[in-house]
Amino acid sequence: MPPRHLADLDLAGRRAAVSELGEQAFRAGQLSTHYFGRLERDPAGMTDIPAAARERLTGTLLPRLLTPVRELACDGGDTRKALWRLHDGSMVESVLMGYADRVTVCISSQAGCGMACPFCATGQAGLTRNLSTAEIVDQVVYLAGIAASGVMGGAPRRLSHVVFMGMGEPLANYNRVIDAVRRLTSPAPEGLGLSQRHITVSTVGLVPAMRKLAEEDLSVTLALSLHAPDDDLRDELVPVNQRWKVAEVLDAAWAYAARTGRRVSIEYAMIRDVNDQPWRADLLGRLLSGRLAHVNLIPLNPTPGSKWDASPKPVEREFVRRLRAAGVATTVRDTRGREIDGACGQLAASEVEA
Ligand code: SAH
């Protein structure tokens, strides 16, 4: 694992760590205010802390976790993908997206992914390792700083939304992801002070972890990557379905909705002639009708070596029509970042083009 960082600890833990160094405990609050309140990641900018103390403190609590390797932008600068190298050479990516009313960051929870979904570039590469809490949080703090600098054009400067939809399966790195959510949502200086409702955790459907998440007393949005309403096809598209079937995974989603009052987002990549048939729309409609759910259709993004492509627009429209006729709220995701391989399922953290 990477070196310990202040974002791995709550405020009490940071105070203890600072005291252990022989420094005064209030320095923990100062460091935290710089990092979470001012988005300052560079010790040189923390001038209210005397230089000698600063060096000791930052050496122990602010090690550099992410080294930017490459930043790419598209959509006139409103979509930015960052590729990072971690201390052990692993690579991860995050994507920052500016909209008229909000700024969203899509972050990675693992280097690679072990879930092996055949249409996802990350899934093809396999799992390298879990990220630490601070490696997850630091992606957000870094990109919140970029947004705050005003480069996102028409978007607000304040980062407001976080989606765990980058590389990795967040619920397979459960404790660190939950800790990261707590850091992102605690008020400054303990954390970044984001609203829990503005955080989305997306999962392939690890049922025991979904049930555990429902008990955390967090009102984060749960997204479930369903992609097929029937086990035959879902076994292939989302291999973990061989362990937890569609009915079980939806039961866990409804338990989450009942417990939190939050509408679950059902993610469904539209793959031509694979999962986009009218009968599958009807079956999905029957499964979701009357539930606290919303369907988010994602036009399939191309990935290297994949034999699949996106459904034609008329097929997509018919799918939407049938879901809505069944009374299911449905939207089609405005896919960002395709040109920079920054869209859903395209994150592969390859340095080849760097
Ligand atoms: N492992 C978690 C988090 C990743 S979220 C999960 O699967 O939910 C990334 C989302 O993009 C998931 O819904 C995933 O299924 C979807 N996705 C993966 N590859 C895609 C592709 N090529 N085109 C469109 N969506 C894709």
TrEMBL record:
- What cellular-component terms does GO give this entry? cytoplasm
Q: Which SUPFAM superfamilies match?
A: Radical SAM enzymes
Give the family per the record.
Belongs to the radical SAM superfamily. RlmN family.
**What Enzyme Commission number(s) does the record list for this chain?**
2.1.1.192
Question: What's the source species for this entry?
Answer: Catellatospora bangladeshensis
Q: What is the lineage of its organism?
A: Bacteria, Bacillati, Actinomycetota, Actinomycetes, Micromonosporales
Q: What is this protein called?
A: Probable dual-specificity RNA methyltransferase RlmN
Q: Which locations, inside or outside the cell, does it occupy?
A: Cytoplasm
Q: Corresponding gene? A: rlmN
Q: Which InterPro entries match?
A: Aldolase_TIM (IPR013785), Methyltransferase_A (IPR040072), RNA_MTrfase_RlmN (IPR027492), rRNA_lsu_MTrfase_RlmN/Cfr (IPR004383), rSAM (IPR007197), rSAM_sf (IPR058240)
